[in-house]
Amino acid sequence: MDASFWALVGLILFFVLIAWLGIPAKITAALDSRATKIRTDLEEARKLREEAQALLADYQRRRHEAEAEAEAIVAEARAEAEQLTLETTRSLEELIARRTKSAEDKIAQAEAHAIAEVKAKAADLAVAAAESMLVAKVTGSVAEGLTAKSIEQVKAGLN
């Protein structure tokens, strides 16, 4: 019996001892549990990735909605500003037209008043001149009657 025979017997006894202690079943169970854990971890990672993608899509959608809303607000503000500018311009033009009309009316009234004053003054001067001329040329009671009558005619004609 040589050494290879005893090495073979030792190897066979080693395999029998391993089988009797249930080492292959324990190794298989450990590998199965590790495979199950890896499968669970992979499934959890897949779910987390799907959730992250859903959140990313949701945030992108919200961002686009917020951008669209901001653009709408800016457009509305511009439209309101333009409308306000138009209304202000129109109001200013109306105010200028009213004030111009008022100034023209006041000027026309002042002009009419000045003309009336000039006419009245001219009439008074004409009456005074006529009176002094009549007084100088006509004397007596005829002069007084004629003067009074002339003054009344001039006053009635000018007013």
UniProtKB/TrEMBL annotation:
Subunit structure: F-type ATPases have 2 components, F(1) - the catalytic core - and F(0) - the membrane proton channel. F(1) has five subunits: alpha(3), beta(3), gamma(1), delta(1), epsilon(1). F(0) has three main subunits: a(1), b(2) and c(10-14). The alpha and beta chains form an alternating ring which encloses part of the gamma chain. F(1) is attached to F(0) by a central stalk formed by the gamma and epsilon chains, while a peripheral stalk is formed by the delta and b chains.
Molecular function in Gene Ontology: hydrolase activity; proton-transporting ATP synthase activity, rotational mechanism; proton-transporting ATPase activity, rotational mechanism
Superkingdom, natural source: Bacteria
Coiled-coil region(s): 35-94
Keyword NADP included in the entry's annotation: no
Entry keywords, A to Z: ATP synthesis, Cell membrane, CF(0), Coiled coil, Hydrogen ion transport, Hydrolase, Ion transport, Membrane, Transmembrane, Transmembrane helix, Transport
Keyword Membrane recorded: yes
Signal sequence range: none
UniProt similarity note: Belongs to the ATPase B chain family.
The organism of origin for this protein: Pannonibacter phragmitetus
InterPro entries to which the protein is assigned, alphabetical: ATP_synth_b/b'su_bac/chlpt, ATP_synthase_B_chain
Subcellular location: Cell inner membrane; Cell membrane
Family matches, as Pfam families: ATP-synt_B (PF00430)
Membrane topology: Single-pass membrane protein
Protein name, UniProt field: ATP synthase subunit b
Task of the protein: F(1)F(0) ATP synthase produces ATP from ADP in the presence of a proton or sodium gradient. F-type ATPases consist of two structural domains, F(1) containing the extramembraneous catalytic core and F(0) containing the membrane proton channel, linked together by a central stalk and a peripheral stalk. During catalysis, ATP synthesis in the catalytic domain of F(1) is coupled via a rotary mechanism of the central stalk subunits to proton translocation. Component of the F(0) channel, it forms part of the peripheral stalk, linking F(1) to F(0). The b'-subunit is a diverged and duplicated form of b found in plants and photosynthetic bacteria.
A cellular-component GO term for this protein: plasma membrane
